[in-house]
Amino acid sequence: MNWCLIIPLIVGVICAILGYLLGKLSSGDNSEAIQSWQKKYDKLDADLADCRAKLARKDVVTTHLIPFDAAMAKSAFGKKIKQDDLKIVEGIGPKIEVLFHAKGVTTWKELSDCSVEKCYEVLKSGGKAFDIHRPETWPEQAKLAYEGKWVKLKAWQDELKGGK
Q1: Which residue in 2, 24, 130, 140 has a CA-CA distance of 20 to 30 Å to 155?
Q2: Longest CA pairwise span in the chain (Å)
Q3: Does this model's pTM top 0.70?
């Protein structure tokens, strides 16, 4: 009998059995780790669905855009108006425009589709300094801008005081 082959074979089998048993004993319960990864996966899946929904809404918006007439806007307001400049809305200044852009509202069409409650949420995201603003007319003003109703928008804004 060749002991040079049998001894290493026996040692290998014993090591394999011990390794298997130690692996079983040390693996324990991984359900917390699995749940943690499942939560991360679910959040990523929800984020992806949200992004796809936003992308779909943007596709609809871009296919139904009303052409912007800069000359007509300038004649009504007496100054050059840039397309989708949210500051044209009475009550929105540069800082509030930044808040809206941070929330994904970058066009007159998107602002016109916002609810007043959503406008308040955007203002709230900026802190206490924005509590004084009242956005009740902002979506309607943005709709007039989007639709190119510049004379009507200007006349209405002349009646408003700070967007109210």
Answers
A1: 130
A2: 109
A3: no
Predicted confidence (pLDDT) at residue 63 exceeds the cutoff of 50:
no
Tell me the C-alpha to C-alpha distance, in Å, between residue 126 and each of 51, 86, 89, 133.
Answer: 23, 16, 18, 11
pLDDT of 127: 94
Q: Report which secondary-structure segment, H or E, holds 140.
A: helix 138-147
Over 80: is that where the pLDDT of 71 sits? yes
What would the mean pLDDT of 15-31 be, rounded to a whole number?
81
Q: Rounded CA gap, 135 and 151, in Å?
A: 21
Mean pLDDT of 16-45: 84
Decide: 130 and 124 in contact? Cβ < 8 Å.
yes
Q: What is the DSSP string of 23-77?
A: HHHHH---HHHHHHHHHHHHHHHHHHHHHHHHHHHHHHHHHTPPPP-HHHHHHHH
Torsion of CA 56, 57, 62, 63, to 10 degrees: 70
d(CA 48, CA 44): 6
